[in-house]
Amino acid sequence: MPKRPAADDSATIARRIAELRETINHHRRLYHTLAEPEIADAEYDELIRELEDLERAHPAEAAADSPTQLIGGEISEAFAPVEHRVPMTSLDNAMDRTELDAWGERVLKGLGDVEVHYCCELKIDGLAVSLRYENGRLVQAATRGDGRIGEDVTANVATIAVVPKVLKSTKNVTVPEVLEVRGEVYLPIDAFERLKAAKEAENAERVAAGRKPEPVPVNPRNAGAGSLRQKDSTVTAGRGLAFWAYQVGEVVGGPEFASHHDTLAFLSALGFPVNPSIRVVASLAEVGDYCDEWQSKRHQIPYEIDGVVVKVDDLAQREALGFTARAPRWAIAFKFPPEERTTLLRDIQVSIGRTGRATPFAVLEPVFVGGSTVGMATLHNEDQVRLKDVRPGDTVVVRKAGDVIPEVVGPVLSLRPEGLAAWKFPTTCPCPIGSTLARNEGESDTRCVEPNCPHQRDQRIIYFASRGAMDIEGLGERTVFQLSDAGLVADPGDIYSLTIEQLLTLEGFGRLSAEKLLAAIEGSKSRPLPKILTALGVKHLGPSAAEALASAFGNLDGVMAASIDDLATVDGVGEVIAQSITSWFAVPDNREFVEKLRRAGVDFGNVEVSRLPQVLVGKAIVVTGTLDGFDRDGAEKAIKDRGGKSPGSVSKKTFAVVIGREPGASKVSKAEELGVPMIDEETFRRVLETGELD
Length: 694
Ligand code: IVH
Hints:
Strands 12, 13, 14, 15, 16, 17 and 18 form a seven-stranded antiparallel sheet that branches. Strands 2-11-10-3-9 form a five-stranded mixed sheet. It has a four-stranded antiparallel sheet with strand order 5-4-7-8. The protein starts with 9 loop residues before the first helix and ends with a helix. Helix 1 (about 10-35) packs antiparallel against helix 2 (about 40-55), helix 12 packs across helix 13 (about 475-485) and helix 16 (about 530-535) crosses helix 17. By secondary structure, it is an alpha+beta fold. The chain folds into five domains: about 10-70, Helix Hairpins (Orthogonal Bundle); about 95-335, DNA ligase/mRNA capping enzyme (D-amino Acid Aminotransferase, Chain A, domain 1, 2-Layer Sandwich), CATH 3.30.470; about 340-440, CATH 2.40.50.140; about 455-600, DNA polymerase, domain 1, CATH 1.10.150; about 620-690, Rossmann fold (3-Layer(aba) Sandwich), CATH 3.40.50. Helix content is about 35%, strand content about 20%. The radius of gyration is 34 Å and the shape is globular. The chain is built from 24 helices and 21 strands. The site of 2-(butylsulfanyl)adenosine has 14 residues, from strand 3, strand 8 and strand 11. 2-(butylsulfanyl)adenosine binds next to strand 3, strand 8 and strand 11.
């Protein structure tokens, strides 16, 4: 897409305006009519913005049929047209707080600075529909279409469980003769995930059979739109669509409403789902708070929202404010920053992990999405790339929602350049020695088969120094690459022989930073045993198994000497980890690496290990008062050395309370109350031996 014109050259501007109108009309059709958008909403909004700005600055170029003046899309021929008796208008957008405040100012000015209440609602990311009830019966459901004429989707909407089909009067509400209810049909996130998983499973079968995968729905909105516009309503019925009501259209023979929230209360009383998060507030500052609150909570609800809709609550005030050509002046849509954008997939490259796993990742034209600029995203493995069918040169949808890592959702197929080749997993490693990449039968990962691959080695050093392992501050990815490129380190053991002179040869290192790094490396020699065990990088051996091994064996030599059975019987270790540990220590290079660490002076552990019979495993014994043969710590240690626990208070799970001289009154009374056995010192000694009370 050409850039904005820089100078105020009227021919260039007219050309740009024409080009924008054409582009926007193309995307309007894809979005509204075909429900198959090619660009993310955020990009569409940007185009509209640019056109609006240009039209405002150059009024001579304004046109009644400009997309800035239109609502929604054209009508597809697949569904019968329905004329809306009350038009379904769109809303103006506020992209940030300044724009929201400007809207607030306009409202206040328009009303002559009176008191205004605002109804704040979630902006549901779905499809607007109008439901028409005559004498309490659902007679028609229509999409918004171009705002004046929509499409008849009655049969499909009738399959949505939460949409009332028949309305009943109660002592509080009387059903109007005619009632049009407007609201949003949407696909809840779990229903979307189910649909996506089903499509992916179908695709996996297709690919396995040598056929091309079919497009997978990219987000709940598109999937919801597709579900609502099915020709066969039994397909719609199986999708799990839902609905929130937020507005009324034509009403005949109904009550006179004074406020929007009264209208919503009426709809709710008639049985329509009205969103519980709606809040009426008395100032624009509170509107801002509501927007902030929901921007941070947007992922805590089971459906997608893309902003907040703010409406003037008083209906007389609304009347006074009226409409522009496109939208009401009394409402505004505050849009959250986009979480989905489209961008160019420049390349797919492969990164090598410390165990040799080769992970493909997307190199993207950087794009601002979900609050940060994204230039890379993992593609997990070969099958994922094939299933998503993303190819270098594709325009792809990128999503970054909340704290979730950025994801390439899929390609925009209609924008794929002709003849674009599918990506093939490389067979050589990107490392300088170009080792071989191979995928074993039945495995999803492709691996670099050469343990001496420089990329693997770098990753092992990075892992060794990381926070969960030896925790060496200053030895991050950048420094490791520098050290490795300079040929100063080849395995993690080498870091202990680095000298200040060597570090000073590296770019960015001064005496102070070099000394700091050496001090951090020195400090790592006394890390506790679980950290060292983790740092070795043995497959499956994570921090909690490392803790368990450290307490069971006390030092690294003990773990090295242990048999598979010895290892596997440790609580929290098990067969798989035990097997992995013994195989790791069986490799001569690994043993040599361990010896290098020993020679460097790394402390291999001094966790004290009890060799006493573990008769008290699972038992808690509380000690109170003074004993003759034990001081307080000694008694606790005697219990713990036999596998027991010695908590500070009595509960119904306590095995026994040892009563010494001058015991604590509360412990005694608690033991009495709960019926916990109370024992003297002599019995305690027997319990330490046998684990039994008698
Ligand atoms: S009120 C005249 N309320 O957002 C007022 N719209 O950008 C008409 N939307 O077309 C709309 N949640 O599809 C309204 N709580 C809400 C909404 C909402 C989502 C959608 C609706 C509308 C679009 C405007």
